[in-house]
């Protein structure tokens, strides 16, 4: 029998369903923001307690960190203090912002374990879960021993002459990339910095692995790379893509694109190995494949580490290159000193590119200081309790470094810390930079490709500024170059337009 009470209950249930439908996201965020810190705060109650930004649907704080890192970095530190908590899914992660805490965290850096898939879930597992950079301990050491020889400083130095030659040739062909199509005026034209300088460092890095590549091989690699880059949105976005079941149920096309990429990436490397064996060549990819055949590395570990070295790092090296060029182009006194230095070293270019005590190298480091490719580092943890400003962080809790806090807002850098001023690095000891500058990682786990990347980017910059007057183009309604990340491009690369005007070259 339908009674007035039944009507009230039915109406209440309907109202609840409507509220859940229209306000479910807010309710979920509020509930999880209250519950998660009580279930697992990441810190011991015996120490100082911390807070942080509330949990946000669908991924905690991950999207904000990747997409709006430059904006939220300072906001969060001001609001929550030098140590605070963010969330990756339901996992707590502790952010540190001071050189003192970075030094303490780095004391056992060589033994830092990594959380499975760095707390980013199933989609990352399928792409990078067994890549060298996401492993630790014996597995990391095993893979590092296999991959490292091609990327040591000594190995990178042996390739400098080829890198310099490639940079010269690439700069000569820049008119083909002019805005509006190939420029008929070889003396002056405009180029978009991202479009112009994305592929050059990428393919030179690839050649450090595969050796000389045909145009067809480069084209095939780029086609596969574009498919890989299109998958970034899923691991950054998280949510349903954190779990295989929900991803397959809710977005089967995304899973199919993932599986298609994995097949094509495997097949591409099989073809590259076969072609080099037929020609009797022995670049690093052959060594890696021999280790695979000997059972010293799995197919997944090999292919995912190659992905890490190339495709994941495409955003990184493009970011570094575009901001290096944009910042130098925007400062006349820096350009003038750079050209004078290039002219003085034109007969010893190999040594000049390799040197770490030049104005060119200081420009490189200073650009990464004020424009880091990642505002927050990928998390690492310690097997021991860490005391940061009285906050006792539990063992195996992911810890992130706020790179802008270390590199820019740090009192070590003075009042003009946001300015691009390479000369500031002239008289600073390397030991003083250790915990006041975060660029290539910490401990023995520093970025393996740092020497290769450094030589590539410095060679390109030397030839570019020797051959051209390079000036940023002022765009209507826009104040200077900016950099924004999105779900598919996780580093905030420069979006500047540059005017190139030919000048008499000395190289």
From TrEMBL:
One MF annotation (Gene Ontology) recorded for this entry: monooxygenase activity
InterPro entries: Cyt_P450 (IPR001128), Cyt_P450_CS (IPR017972), Cyt_P450_E_grp-I (IPR002401), Cyt_P450_sf (IPR036396), Cytochrome_P450_Monoox (IPR050196)
Binding residue positions for heme: 447
Pfam families: p450
Cofactor: heme
Keyword Iron applies: yes
Keywords on record: Heme, Iron, Metal-binding, Monooxygenase, Oxidoreductase, Signal
Signal peptide stretch: 1-19
Coiled-coil intervals: none
Family: Belongs to the cytochrome P450 family.
Protein name: P450 cpaC
Annotated source species: Curvularia pallescens
